[in-house]
Amino acid sequence: MQRLARETADALKETGPAGGGPGTLYIVATPIGNLGDLSPRAEKVLSSVAVVAAEDTRHSGRLLQHLGLSKPMIALHEHNERERVDRVLKELQAGKDLALISDAGTPLISDPGYVVVREARAAGIRVSPIPGPCALVTALSAAGLPTDRFLFAGFLPAKRTGRKAALEALKREQATLVFYESPHRILDTLADLVSVLGSERELVLGRELTKTFETFYSGNAGGVLAELEADPHGSKGEFVMVVRGAEVSGRGEAESQLDVDKLLELLLAELPVKKVAKIVAELTGGSKNELYQRALELKDR
Ligand code: SAM
User: Taking 50 as the threshold, does the pLDDT of residue 7 lie above it?
Assistant: First the structure.
């Protein structure tokens, strides 16, 4: 009896409420390379909706074709999302269910859909996620780096100056960092990562995940860069970079000499050297003796 009630509730969730209300906007994750990763539920929803909104209708048309489906499609990409929102909302308000898909993976994750989802929710339309593949979670799940806290930073800026500034801002972040990168920028980005975060920073690079040539490169950033440069297929395919967060304390990369010096200087203006070294050692986990020596140097400057 309980099972029947649950199944009825699940079925309702998949077809939307009966009656003349607005339709449901389904956010459907699709494979990131391996078609076998399309979930049965995603397939069911794609076959049941009236309209499919897709980033690239030609590309997604092939997925629908593979599933034996033919659906009216709305092209919704980063350059026209705002204009297309009204059309999408109109279809939903007319009672049609609509599925939003992107070229690969989970919509809205470095992909269009944010504006539509936000506006649909504001208009009181039901938005229902159909979870599935996502490159960042796929990489993270197999990277062997801490997953209790991670920061997904999407794509780094395309130009070197902006990219280095973005990395500089993340240098002291302790959570695991996850980035997407394109094949034509991967070597430059890795070189910048080495120069800003240091060649010793642990890195796992996932390439062509779930596809035939799936490869993981792991080690320190300098080593991974060298390995990729030496691999003739190295800069081909799609990449996720998973980077270990900064050290928690001590005299690791997390704690730049500049910050410690600044702290020492500020305290030296108010307190005796010994006391300053004691406080800063407690705050940073650094050695009291070393900090005492450094404080003396700064005081003499
Ligand atoms: N929405 C997608 C998701 O859920 O992962 C991401 C879309 S974003 C425009 C495309 C980027 O995701 C690629 O440049 C690459 O960094 C990453 N990516 C997608 N598929 C991948 C795969 N099979 N292997 C490695 N990275 C992948």
Answer: no
Centre of ligand 1 to C-alpha 55, Å, is 14
Cβ atoms 76, 88 nearer than 8 A? yes
- Cα angle: 86, vertex 110, 30; to 5 degrees: 80
Distance in angstroms (rounded) separating the CA atoms of residues 71 and 79: 23
CA distance 105 to 60: 12
Q: How far is the CA of 170 from the centre of ligand 1 (A)?
A: 21
Record the tokens describing residue 232, joined without a space.
């003739």
User: pTM for this one?
Assistant: 0.80
Q: Name 97's Cβ contacts closer than 8 Å, sequence gap at least 6.
A: 15, 16, 23, 24, 25, 26, 48, 49, 50, 51
pLDDT for 254: 46
241 lines ligand 1 (CB under 6 A): no
| Amino acid symbol at 109 | I
Alpha-carbon span 236 to 184, nearest angstrom:
8
CA proximity to 181, closest of 201, 198, 156 = 156
Cβ–ligand 1 contact at 32 (below 6 Å):
yes
Q: Is the CB of 113 under 6 A from ligand 1?
A: no
Q: How far is the CA of 139 from the centre of ligand 1 (A)?
A: 10
Is 280 exposed, middle or buried, given 0-12, 13-18 or 19+ CB atoms closer than 10 A?
A: buried
Q: What is the pLDDT of residues 81-97, one digit of tens each?
A: 888 999 999 999 999 99
What is the four-CA torsion angle of 163, 165, 168, 170, rounded to 10 degrees?
Answer: -70
CA distance 4 to 6: 5
